[in-house]
Amino acid sequence: MLTRAVLTAPGALEMHFQPIVMLATGRVIAHEALARFPGLPGVPIPDVFHAAHAAGFGPELEALAVTRALAQPDRPRWTVLTVNLSVSTLRSPVLWDALPADLDGVVVEITEDELWGYGDDLDRALARLLDAGARIALDDAGAGYAGLQQLMRVRPDIVKLDRSLVCGVATDPARAALVASFASFATQTGGAVCAEGIECPDDLRAIAELDVAYAQGYLLGRPTPTFAPPVSVAAAPVASTLRGGLRALEQAPRDLTTSLGGSVPERLATLIGAAASADRVDLWRLDRRAGELVAVRVPDQDPGARVALGDVPVRAHALATGEAGQVLRTDVDADGIERRALAAAGYQGVLLVPVEDGGLVLGLVACYRRRARPWSREAVAHVRSRAVPFVSVLSGGGGLTMAEPA
After folding, report:
1. Alpha helix (H) ranges present in 110-213?
2. CA-to-CA distance for 223 and 217, rounded, in angstroms?
3. 8 A C-beta contact, residue 334 and residue 359
4. Sign of the C-alpha dihedral, residues 61, 67, 73, 75?
5. How far apart are CA 375 and CA 389, in angstroms?
């Protein structure tokens, strides 16, 4: 029988940390804090917490686990800590007395099947967490019947897909369709998806193609008593999968040789920004002969302002290859020029999408976000679609129609 001694006995409660990887970069960007009870071998962790709640000290045990997780030293810079809390504990004063006032860099995970039966008190608790700087994750999504209905209610920052939905996604079209629906919903509501329980490279590859932003599982890292460093995932099958992500590393420019021109109104930038959930959109044309980017619509520069491609190697690489990429401030291996520019402007990431016609690159769309959330392949497709009128102008097609492309 579980007793309150678990709250005070030395070594009764330990915290381990499992890495969460951003698929766009292959880097560890977060750690989930997981409780371990060495004195209760073989007992499932959820059963321990259920027993504590049945005995009347569940909120105290959860609060202790969160407090110890937050106190763990040496969490790598730029990484986030996720902690698990039950909905009933969110309503307990015991928890709020234990939590610090500043929860910046913390994600609170709540479980989908716990949301039934709670009303305004849950909404107030979630609002209080958000006011303290925390973000909200809906855990075990897809495991029960609540699904999208609970997503509509909570509007979480992160949707964590249950392993029962993720396992086998590479070979099961029905699972893939469900994962895609969650990813699309999260994107449209300003959130992101994390797939749990990744244990094989095929499933990892499949979820990356389905626009899932984050992944977690034994293939990427097991829970350990210390934090995993935020280095790129090194395992060969994992690295080869993640290299296909939208990540822009430092690249040397290539020779670009033809001159083009054109202009575009503010309306087009607005359409692209809405499609990409971007806070700012810059539009550039490419002057190949001069080897420069020319500002078409850039909020902090005059039209016609020029930037040498040699000064922006990542953008030069995107223009030379026609491949979209993104730079995130949290990715320490990404191009330093772009990361410094992001820091100076107050943005967390930039998506670079070359604009081309018939295989010839004509210009560049740069989308910026203030939130630290990566873009998906779906977002790139939306940008390319909305940029069709820009292509027409840059390729000499004349006037610009404001009708949205089909």
Report:
1. 120-131, 147-154, 163-166, 173-188, 201-209
2. 9
3. no
4. positive
5. 22
User: Are the CB atoms for 102 and 134 separated by under 8 Å?
Assistant: no
The residue length of the chain stands at 406
The terminus-to-terminus CA distance of the chain in angstroms comes to 64
Phi/psi of residue 231, nearest 5 degrees:
-100, 160
CB–CB of 136/129 below 8 Å? yes
Most confident option among 142-151, 200-209, 218-227, 373-382: 218-227
* Identity of residue 241: T
The model's pTM is 0.71
Which pair of structure tokens corresponds to residue 70? 């937050």
Q: What is the DSSP letter of 245?
A: S
CA distances 311 to 4, 287, 321, 329, 346, Å, are 62, 14, 17, 18, 20
Could you please report the per-residue DSSP string of 246-310? S--B---------B------HHHHHHHHHHHT-SEEEEEEEETTTTEEEEEE-TTS-TT-EEEGG
> What is the average per-residue pLDDT within 239-257?
49
Residues 121-160: tens digit of each pLDDT:
888 898 999 999 999 998 877 665 455 566 666 778 888 9
